[in-house]
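Q: What does the assembled structure look like for these inputs?
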Amino acid sequence: MKDSICVKRKRVSDYVMYGLIYACAASSVLLLVGIILYVLVKGAGQINISFLTNVTSVLRGTVGIAGNIVNTLYIIIITMLIATPIGIGAAVYLNEYAKPGKLVSLIEFATETLAGIPSIIFGLFGMMFFAQTLGLGYSLLTGSFTLTLMVLPLITRNTQEALKTVPDSYRSGAVGLGAGKWYTIRTILLPSAMPGIITGVILAIGKIVGESAALLFTAGSAYTLPKGISDIFTKTLSSGGTLTIQLYLSAQKGEFGIAFGIAVVLLVIVLLINAATKLLTKKFDVNREK
Amino acid sequence: MEQKTKISVKDLNLFYGENHALKNVSMDMKENAITAFIGPSGCGKSTFLKTLNRMNDLVDNVKITGQVLLDQEDIYGAEVDTTTLRKKVGMVFQQPNPFPMSIYDNIAYGPRVHGIKDRHKLDEIVEESLRGAAIFDEVKDRLKKSALSLSGGQQQRICIARALAVHPDVLLMDEPTSALDPISTLKIEDLMEELKKTYTVVIVTHNMQQAVRVSDDTAFFLLGEMIEYGNTKDLFAYPQDKRTEDYITGRFG
Amino acid sequence: MRLKYEAQLEGLNQELVNMGSMIEKSIEYAVDALVNQDAELAAKTMKNDSRINREQKKIESTCFHLLLQQQPVAGDLRFISAAHKMVTDMERIGDQAADICEITLTIAKQPYMIDLKFLKKMAAETIQMLIKSIESYILQDRKKAEEVIGNDDVVDELFEREKSELIHQIQINPKCSEQAADMLMVAKYFERIGDHAVNIAEWVLFALDDHKTE
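A:
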């Protein structure tokens, strides 16, 4: 007698596996939600306009993180302005121009290694080289240069991966029409790789926002606002503490209210970054059929 | 009616490193005719097609000897500008490969590469090319939409239109319908009949019935050599070389 | 490769050979029946013609399906096209044999008043032509086919001589005129059989012609 297809077989092992996997998923989600809720509960009370727009000053009796917010912005902008073109350029060279061989393998190896070095070592290097040797001292510029070194491999790698996924058929098609190499890269390859590039950029920004060890030795901890238009550029030469640095310092001093307040702000920033990633990659994805 | 020779190949040899991929190929291809290359996988027909617009230049370690004369000028000469060459000799590939941009931008890509910026001129060229590829009516209302939103057969016709947009003399087609459904295939075969009135068409096909249906002359390749070349009906009804007969009757793959 | 196709081509070949031997027999029996005034044999041979007709339909269908299914080219295409045409001529030969038998049924009732000398010669000649044309097909022998085509004149000449002889017979002996008229028709049938054998040989040449410059 052949097995009837209508009889359902119950397998106990399937149910057990299903239960275990479900438990794993549930616990990771619960853990994440738990942390976020804890931070929000502890810090939400701290958030108000005054907190966000004022600078902590004994003289004026205010408590606020405006200075830190500005410093964070400075670091992000300067770092990305330097790292992005260099990173993309390196990736384009490696993927489109360089012949596969020892040199390329060496560069790729170096990039991989850089990506794995603990950030505090970058901080040390930054302190010795940018701060002391180049004479920049504790400053936003020193911090930015240091973070550039950290973030460069990230951008290069993401851009390279993105370029690798661009089908070769585009390249053939463009060459078949008479297009030169750089023209093809500019008009087809880079636009097509845009989602990957944007991902790399945003990951880099995320890393910058969360960075503490490297900035501790390089950018310092001051939190004054620029004094005027002319000061906007000169401020880069003076020290400035980012949100993350301030969180560390406040927690150290026992000012947990401020620390959790900053934590909430940072969480909001991370949320916004994720949302931005989704939005931007969707908008710039030329490979999607419209 | 005497037909002019558009492309004349003399003693062409191609080496991929040590591999002698094309051996002493010589043939004349007629203007305003469809010439087909047939042969088993790996026989060199696609490689040979690519020598006609120097696409092999992109591959490392390739050595080519012999001559390929386009209108009596050797395309492998020292003074040859490959950009101009590829304007004169266009190519359509096996997998439709429209760029990830709008239909309009796809067609306008070639002309823009060659310096045409004027909007009106580009509009003209785009319409002319889409008509030439028998697809204008289907897409005229959505030129700004991404070319990737079209079906496979439509995409391939867009690629043909894109190749036509630079006003080539010769159109090379590497198995242009092998990735398409039967109806799209037949549409493109009809298109080829039209195209040959204005252009010289060279196609590589592994579909022998297609070669019989569509081409005026056929060349049979085997292991890098061109075994037989002649009028398509004659070659298929009265093959002169036993290897040709064995291949076309399916006695070997 | 293409094992099914090869088997189908071999099958077609076999069917043609069988048909060839069927019509050979038909003619031989028809001649025997005529010469020996054997009405029974004539009737049997006539009945057999329906088998020949069925065989023709079968071979035509085989050719049609081969063209449809296998898209033959080159030598295969020429062979299948030739086969398709050859069976028509073969079937006609079968019909002529049956027609001869039909006449035999009427004239066998009375003794012959006319000498069958030329008729026997025609019979022998056309049977030879038929056998040769079928052999040329089986052996793929160009020369044999050409010989058959050359022989057509011989048969035509024999027909003219038979015709004169019969006319002469009618003039000297009006009583045999009915028999003579029937004999004339039989002679004509033999001449037609010769023509059909020539057609078969011509199709064999078509199948074998590969346009090669030797």
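The two ends of chain C are 29 Å apart (CA to CA).
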